């Protein structure tokens, strides 16, 4: 399991919330199973590299969110998952050796452009679209490059500062738009020319590739994205249970 590190993001979450987000993501990804008891607090705090008091604050927050149940004299257990979608439920990239990490993103570029022909139509044909390019980190480790497209209708100005680590949370807050389902297509593709050095792979090198279309509950296309990831550092993971 990865330890908590300071984020390069200027709007980094407090440490206890970073711990809570990391554990929540692990639970939603199936890394911790329903009914499973978490390690003792002292052991888990050492693993995460945080103080026991910080860990307890994070566990209390997750208990309030009904992801965990704390049983006096027994320990902390994973509760049955809510169907309510949260920030990183659909993020499938995980660190190869330590599982789900805390996601953060560095914005590289934000542009309003004519709608490219290879991107699904958002709204009316001919509408402009926003393109966001990011470097994705998991627990501080750079693992992926992301290029994200979404419709510009109702959003004529946009700065990097307005975007947080989660685009889906941004859609909810800015447009009252919730992502209901996604379709991912996995393969391999050359690293794009706009790759930045922290990514580790040079432009043109072979990388894992994810092409995603995301829809709203009303079956409207909300987002199209491409992700290039370093398969030596991370992998795409999907867990199923019955």
TrEMBL record:
GO molecular function annotations of the record: DNA binding; DNA-binding transcription factor activity
Q: Which keywords are on file for this protein?
A: DNA-binding, Transcription, Transcription regulation
Ranges for domain HTH gntR-type come to: 13-81
Q: Name a Pfam family for this protein.
A: UTRA
Mind telling me which InterPro entries this protein's record contains?
Bact_HTH_transcr_reg, Chorismate_lyase_/UTRA_dom_sf, Tscrpt_reg_HTH_GntR, UTRA, WH-like_DNA-bd_sf, WH_DNA-bd_sf
Q: What is this protein called?
A: GntR family transcriptional regulator
* A biological-process GO annotation: negative regulation of DNA-templated transcription
Q: Which organism is it from?
A: Sphaerotilus mobilis
Q: Does the keyword Ligase apply?
A: no
Superkingdom to which the source organism belongs: Bacteria
